[in-house]
Structure formats: C-alpha cells, structure tokens
Amino acid sequence: MQLDIDIEDPWPAGDWEALAERVAQCAISVAPELGNERLAASLLFTSDSQVHELNREWRQRDKPTNVLSFPMLEREDLLELQADGPPELLGDIALACQTCAREAAEKGVSLQDHAAHLVLHGLLHLAGYDHEISAADADAMEAMETKALAQMGIGNPYEEPQTE
C-alpha cells in the first residue's frame, strides 16, 4: 500500500511520514488485505477546523473529531482485488491536530503514539472494519489495533490506566 501524506499547520515538527509508514506496515500485519501493492491511501494531518468542515460536509456532524475515514472501496471489492492491474484508491484519512493533542494529554500518552493509533484506526476503517456495528465487531477491531500497536511498542489504547 502506498501512502500519500500531507502535513499542514498546526501539526508540530516531527517525522509524521515515517510514523505513518510504520503504522501502515503494522496494519498490514493484522489486516493482510491492506498489503495489496495496487492500493493507495491519502493521509492528511490537519487542523481541527479542517476536520470539522469535512465532518459537517460529508457526515452531517457539525463538530470536530479526532480522525475521519473516507473509504473508496467496498470491503468485498478490496478482498477480491487481484495483485495485477492499475492502482486503486483505498480511501482518505484526516487527523485533527488539536483534538489529537488534547486526547493524548488526557490519556497521558505522546502525540506520536496517539496519532499512530488513529492512523491505524483509520486504515482499518478503510479496509471495511467497523466498531459501530456490534460489540463483537468493536472487540475484534480493538484486538487488531492492540496487536498492531504492540509491534510498535505502543501500549493498549483501550486499557484503563492504573491508579495508585
């Protein structure tokens, strides 16, 4: 899978491209269908205001959110995609900087780790996984995310922090 990555203000300096590429490789390890060489996805690191606008326009939700995913392929089409042929756009993902930073601080994790989780979450949505269908689907998607993030040395984002 090829990633087309754009980073806009106010995202802080960092190697977001390398992080996204690492996340994509870990995503492929838990969702092998993402490993098709024909696939391409765009990833936009942007502002809350931009994500708010996208959320309002495309999802009719008038608020910012941490990550948006816009799949371009149906899951069945992704699973049936042959190795040979022209490039196929899997979809688009947008991450909102201020919301991601706030959530990372609330969780007590780095912005990089939280962004990695959200990129992974977005890629799994592009692959057709959905945590909003049922509790079983949510559990399955969370397990995939936890396994992929562990490969990057990132803890379980769904685990409650230990209090003393």
Automatic annotation (TrEMBL):
Subcellular location: Cytoplasm
UniProt keyword annotation of Oxidoreductase present: no
Protein keywords: Cytoplasm, Endonuclease, Hydrolase, Metal-binding, Nuclease, Ribosome biogenesis, rRNA processing, Zinc
Single GO MF annotation: RNA endonuclease activity
One Gene Ontology CC term in the entry: cytoplasm
Major subcellular site: cytoplasm
Amino-acid positions noted as binding Zn(2+) in the UniProt annotation, renumbered to this chain: 121, 125, 131
Transmembrane regions listed in the UniProt entry: none
Function noted in UniProt: Single strand-specific metallo-endoribonuclease involved in late-stage 70S ribosome quality control and in maturation of the 3' terminus of the 16S rRNA.
Protein name: Endoribonuclease YbeY
Record organism: Croceibacterium atlanticum
Organism lineage: Bacteria, Pseudomonadati, Pseudomonadota, Alphaproteobacteria, Sphingomonadales
Gene this protein is translated from: ybeY
